[in-house]
Specification:
Layout (H helix, E strand, L loop, with lengths): L2 H5 L3 H14 L5 E4 L15 E12 L2 E14 L6 H21 L1 H4 L21 E7 L3 E14 L18
Parallel strand pairs: 1-2
Antiparallel strand pairs: 2-3, 3-5, 4-5
Length: 171
């Protein structure tokens, strides 16, 4: 893999990485992506569920910040007897995901070899606000939602853009 492929990540790379984290977390049984209204709320879905909702991308000099809402949710008994337990468990899962982006060399560094750079960042010394929620559909769900800003380097290389002849655009 080239250094550029490690260094400059695409939207697909970022989504696939977040999905992979959810798929490999031992307490998450399903991972979905898309608009919040696309969350599968059927009773046959396995829970806990992690849902990735793309929100925005901020393009700044040499960096793209991709913002995602991450929902971690689980089923609650109809009488709400286990609501506190579900909130506690899903909060721990959410902080596990945040920890990987903030402190894990698995995502932060490719290695210490000369020439290899960081893969993914979150805002340095950034803090995260996690908000509890409870929803009633065919079943009762509760959990936490937080915004995950993922920063990736962007070269803004005009030499390799797919234009036939950009000079003709000058009027």
């Amino acid at each position: 893999m080239s250094i550029d492929a490690q260094q400059y990540k695409t939207y697909n790379n970022v989504i696939d990485t977040i999905k992979c984290i959810g798929d490999n977390h031992l307490q998450i049984f399903a991972v979905t992506t898309g608009d919040i209204w696309q969350i599968d709320l059927e009773k046959n879905t396995k829970y806990p569920l992690m849902h990735i909702n793309p929100v925005s991308v901020v393009a700044s000099p040499s960096m793209l910040t991709m913002n995602f809402q991450i929902f971690i949710m689980d089923l609650v008994e109809p009488d709400l007897a286990n609501e506190q337990e579900v909130q506690s468990d899903t909060l721990q899962i959410a902080t596990d995901i945040i920890s990987l982006f903030m402190h894990s060399e698995t995502l932060y560094q490719t290695s210490t070899t000369v020439g290899q750079q960081a893969r993914y960042f979150t805002e340095e010394n950034g803090s995260f606000t996690l908000e509890p929620f409870q929803e009633r559909f065919d079943n009762v769900l509760c959990g936490w939602v937080f915004t995950l800003p993922v920063q990736v380097q962007n070269l803004y290389d005009t030499c390799n853009t797919p234009f036939t002849n950009a000079e003709i655009c000058l009027k």
